[in-house]
Every structure is written in structure tokens, then in C-alpha cells.
Design a protein that fits this description.
Structural class: alpha/beta
Strand order of the largest sheet: 2-1-3-6-7
Order of helices and strands: EHHEHEEEHEHEHHHH
Strand content: 15-25%
Distance between the termini: 17 Å
Radius of gyration: 16 Å
CATH architecture: 3-Layer(aba) Sandwich
CATH superfamily: SGNH hydrolase
Shape: globular
Number of helices: 9
Length: about 200
């Protein structure tokens, strides 16, 4: 039985659930699947890169964790890092991977159980962005594997998902509607979300 479980979700607008007319995003859907057994905090911020998340994470998370509770952290970064500005990615891929490593190490120091969800694709950003994102997802998965942290690979599956892509292109070009977030939540659930919740802390 899960008791006194507290989960902070950190990341970007995909974590926040921008574009979902039901205002649940994938975070709300995986929490619903857990049957209301967790106190959850959605700390997604639009346009955040891994560097932005690293800069703000610990004051926000420390304010929401409780000594003696089963405190957890779910991270999803990278989609904004790979967007080009002024001819280069907003955050270089090696720096993004280093930022994730710093996030994971900080979580371990605090005794937080961590799950990382890979970066979702941006439908209207083109093939080059997707190629960069796929490469980055592999690097992020590697940092997680080095630390024994579960990683949910979603990038390629969502890029090939007609609902995710169709809803995003019908909207602002990046964010899907309810169906796309349902697909992302399904990937997280299939990767062992409920088992991770039941498995204890760090």
C-alpha cells in the first residue's frame, strides 16, 4: 500500500500540459491511474530548458517535501534545449546531459526516488530538430542508466503517433490536445509507472 507519497513533476510545457482542453495533460492522467494515492505538484514551466529546471528545482522541491514521507521526483527535459535560436540549440546536447546528471545527483543526495520521462517531439520543428532530439534522448537515457534511474523513452513513439502529431499541428504546432497527452500517459503507464510508485523511494 502506498502511504504518504509526494511527487514533484519538473519540466516544461509538456509537463504543464499546455494545449489540453481537459487541463490534465499526461501528468494528470498518470496520477488518475494511481487512484489518488499521491500528493502531487505540477511544476512544469513553459519554455524551460534543462538549465532553467536546474536553476530553480531545489527551492521548489525542498518546499514540497516532508521528512519521513515517500518523496519522489519526475523529470522531463530536453525538448526546448534542442530548439535552435541564433543558429544553435538553446542548450548544447552535452550540457543538457550534464544538467540532467546534476539533477539526478541532487535528487540522490536528498533521498528522492526519481523517474525520467524522455523529451516529447515538437511536431512543427522539422526533421532536423527531431534528429537532434532523438540523439539527445539516447544521451539522457545513458545518464539515467549510469545512475540506476528508470527512463521512459517517448520521443520516437510520439513522433510516429498520428494523434500526437495531428493535434499539435492543428493547434500551436507543438502541443497536442487530450488525445496526444493520453498517448504520452499511456507510454508512461506501459513503462511501469504503477510499479515505480509501489516500489519505494530512492
Amino acid at each position: 500500500m502506498i502511504t504518504n507519497l509526494r511527487i514533484c513533476f519538473l519540466g516544461d510545457s509538456f509537463v504543464q500540459g499546455v494545449g489540453d482542453p481537459e487541463y490534465r495533460g499526461w501528468v494528470g492522467r498518470v496520477l488518475q491511474a494511481a487512484g489518488g494515492q499521491a500528493t502531487a505538484f505540477n511544476l512544469g514551466v513553459r519554455r524551460n530548458t534543462s538549465a532553467d529546471v536546474l536553476a530553480r528545482i531545489w527551492p521548489e522541491v525542498d518546499a514540497r517535501t516532508v521528512p519521513g514521507a515517500d518523496n519522489r521526483l519526475v523529470l522531463s527535459v530536453g525538448s526546448n534545449d534542442t530548439v535552435r535560436e541564433d543558429g544553435r540549440p538553446r542548450v548544447a546536447p552535452e550540457q543538457c546531459a550534464a544538467n540532467l546528471a546534476a539533477l539526478l545527483d541532487g535528487a540522490r543526495e536528498r533521498g528522492l526516488g526519481v523517474l525520467v520521462v524522455g523529451p516529447p517531439p515538437v511536431a512543427d520543428a522539422g526533421a532536423e530538430h527531431l534528429d537532434r532530439l532523438l540523439t539527445l534522448a539516447g544521451a539522457l537515457a545513458g545518464r539515467c542508466a549510469e545512475r540506476g534511474v528508470p527512463f521512459v523513452d517517448v520521443t520516437a513513439a510520439l513522433a510516429a503517433d498520428e494523434v500526437w502529431t495531428g493535434e499539435a499541428l492543428a493547434g500551436d504546432g507543438a502541443h497536442p490536445g487530450a488525445g496526444g497527452y493520453r498517448a504520452l500517459a499511456g507510454l508512461v503507464l506501459a513503462a511501469g509507472w504503477l510499479e515505480w510508485l509501489a516500489g519505494g523511494g530512492a
